[in-house]
Amino acid sequence: MSTQPSKNLETFDNPRQVGDYSIRIEIPEFTCLCPKTGQPDFANLTLEYVPDKSCIELKSLKLYIWSFRDQGAFHEAVTNEILADLVKVCLPRFMRLTAEFNVRGGLYTTVVAEHRAQGWQPADPVSLP
Which CATH number covers residue 93? Predict the structure, then answer.
């Protein structure tokens, strides 16, 4: 196989650093292992962020997400770990990671973790008629 899972996240220069805009990335095939049973956990991740000077490079994100496949992790821990790693390399103005885990033992879990750069304020919402 020419590519392997990797914890190495890459970025590229934000092509539009003036003003805010948002990026939304859907990751429907996240998998990790339950740390108690070793059974696979499946989740749909939604990454939303307002970039500052850099953006997440998508191939590195895909390989990074793949690296969790054989890792045991609680839902809350893995969601916050991913967010922290992404914030560390990207330094966004704002970032939110929503992890919607499939049913386990009759329960669905959704974990939402956010980062807001110091001093950053979102624009006022726009309501259209």
Answer: 3.30.1130.10
